[in-house]
């Protein structure tokens, strides 16, 4: 079955370009022009990914993100944000709200398709995690089960996005070894683009917040990247 993507965007030209390129890549596409229509759409459909423009009429992309993340049945749908260059600050805030990735306008359709595919692969990998390394991981108070996509700290459930889960899993699997931002981008996000190191930083920060007191197991290695502490075993 083809993956299905919902595009939430009010600019017809962008909708045309994005939907054309995704369909060429074998992705089914639905399009709506504003956040309220998107929420209505989601009552009866479940896309594998939402491409969300930041600047929308009515509720904007950030508010939409916030609303979606409050809905238990929809908050795990990956979100890729579309932003314009001037919206630097907002786009970081967007990531804080749980978007999995972002693309800055003007973007290359080819890059956008590659990144959509990377997110879909990641989400798919999580839903059928048996394909990779299915063994449970634990370190100190943190336990993670790739098969059930379940993580906890001291027995208390963690609510992680697909990206955060994969990030934590990767760091734990490579315990004691420094992971550069580029390596993490490659393994977790499935692509390697210069200049996206900050995406890694933002997600690590959010992961640490969710880990609470266990956050110190994820160490920053200045100028290089991140390392999960070996003595956390
Ligand atoms: Ca717009």
Q: What labels describe this entry?
A:
alpha/beta; Rossmann fold; Arc Repressor Mutant, subunit A; 2 domains; four-stranded antiparallel beta sheet; 21% strand
Protein described:
There is one protein chain. The chain is an alpha/beta fold. The protein has two domains: 124 residues, Response regulator (Rossmann fold, 3-Layer(aba) Sandwich); 92 residues, Arc Repressor Mutant, subunit A (Orthogonal Bundle). The protein is 41% helix and 21% strand. The chain has eight helices and twelve strands. A five-stranded parallel β-sheet has the order 2-1-3-4-5, with helices on both faces. Strands 6-7-8-9 form a four-stranded antiparallel β-sheet, covered by helices on one side. A hairpin with a 2-residue loop joins strand 6 and strand 7. The chain starts with a strand and ends in a 5-residue tail after the last strand. The mean pLDDT is 85. The structure holds calcium ion. Calcium ion binds next to loops.
Q: Could you state the order of secondary-structure elements as H and E?
A: EHEHEHEHEHEEEEHEHHEE
Total number of domains = 2
- Beta strand %: 15-25%
CATH homologous superfamily descriptor of the largest domain = Response regulator
Number of helical segments with 4 or more residues: 8
CATH topology of the largest domain: Rossmann fold
* Total beta-strand segments: 12
Give the second-level CATH assignment, the architecture of the largest domain.
3-Layer(aba) Sandwich
Q: Which radius of gyration do the C-alpha atoms yield?
A: 18 Å
Structural class, from helix and strand content?
alpha/beta
Low-confidence stretches: none
> Share of helix among residues?
40-55%
Q: Which strand order does the major sheet show?
A: 2-1-3-4-5
Q: Which ligands accompany this protein? A: calcium ion
